[in-house]
Amino acid sequence: MQKLKLHGFNNLTKSLSFCVYDICYANSEEERDGYIAYIDEQYNATRLTEILSKTCSIIGANVINIARQDYEPQGASVTILIGEETMDPHDVDTSEHPGPLSHSMIAHLDKSHICVHTYPESHPEGGLCTFRVDLEVSTCGVISPLKALNYLIHQLDSDIVTIDYRVRGFTRDINGVKHFIDHKINSIQNFMSEDMKLKHDMMDVNVYQENIFHTKMLLKKFDLTHYLFNSKLEDLGQKEHERITNLLWKEMREIYYGRNIPTVGKIYI
C-alpha cells in the first residue's frame, strides 16, 4: 500500500488482543498451590514492567512514568504512561513481516494503552492447572502493535493462543478522502516468526471488509517432562503416563475449540 499523505494526525486505532494459555499437571493440593505461587513469582510486577517496557520500545513509544504493585497473597499491577516517539510517518514500516522475538498491568500510551491481566486456575480433581494471560495493545497514530506480537508470545508460555486484531475509525488524506486502514494485512499469521508457525497448528477467521482478523494457535506436540510440576517422568508408570497425557491434550483442545469434549478412549497424538 502506498504511503498516505495525511491531513493532520492519524486517527486510526489499531487494537491487538490475545489470550495465552499455559497448562500444567500438579498431582496434589500442595503441588497445585506451589504451581500458583511459582507462576505468581514468574509474572510479578518487576518482570511485567520489563516485558512491557521492551514492548513500548518495539512499537515505538516512550515510557513517561511507571507505577507498579505486587499484592498478597498473589497478583500484581503495573501502570505505565507512554507517549509516541517523534518520527517521520513516511519512515514507518507497515509491511507484513514478523517483529522482534523475544496479575495485572495497564500501560497508557498517548491516546492508546496496553493492559495485561493474569488468571491462574486449578481444580481439586484431575490435577490440571491453567494459567491465562489476557493482553491488549491498542495504539493510535503510525505505531503498530503487530510489531510486538512475536516478542510478547515468546515471553509467555504458550500452549494455546487466541489473537484478535482490528483497525477502527478512519483518517483523512490531504484531499479529504477517508481511509479506514493504512497498511496491508491478509492474516495475523503473516506477522509471526517461522519457528512459531512450525510449533503450532493455526486457524484463521477473518472479516476483511470490517478490518477484523482472528487467529487461533494450538501446540502441535509437547514433552510431558515440562508439564509435570514437582514430579518426575521416570516415577510414572506407562498407564499413568498415558492418563496424564490424555488429560493435557483434552484440556488444550477444549480451550482451543471453546467447547467441552467427551472423554472417549485415547485422544492424545
TrEMBL record:
Its family?
Answer: Belongs to the prokaryotic AdoMetDC family. Type 2 subfamily.
Q: Which NCBIfam families match?
A: SAM_DCase_Eco
Return the HAMAP family for the record: AdoMetDC_2
The reactions it catalyses are: S-adenosyl-L-methionine + H(+) = S-adenosyl 3-(methylsulfanyl)propylamine + CO2
State what protein this is by name. S-adenosylmethionine decarboxylase proenzyme
Lineage here is:
Bacteria, Pseudomonadati, Pseudomonadota, Gammaproteobacteria, Enterobacterales
Tell me where in this chain the PTM Pyruvic acid (Ser) is found: S112
**Could you tell me the keywords of this UniProt record?**
Autocatalytic cleavage, Decarboxylase, Lyase, Polyamine biosynthesis, Pyruvate, S-adenosyl-L-methionine, Schiff base, Spermidine biosynthesis, Zymogen
Identify the InterPro entries for this entry.
AdoMetDC_fam_prok, S-AdoMet_deCO2ase_bac, S-AdoMet_deCO2ase_core
Key word Heme present: no
Report the protein's function. Catalyzes the decarboxylation of S-adenosylmethionine to S-adenosylmethioninamine (dcAdoMet), the propylamine donor required for the synthesis of the polyamines spermine and spermidine from the diamine putrescine.
Which Gene Ontology BP terms does the record give? spermidine biosynthetic process
Subunit-level organization: Heterooctamer of four alpha and four beta chains arranged as a tetramer of alpha/beta heterodimers.
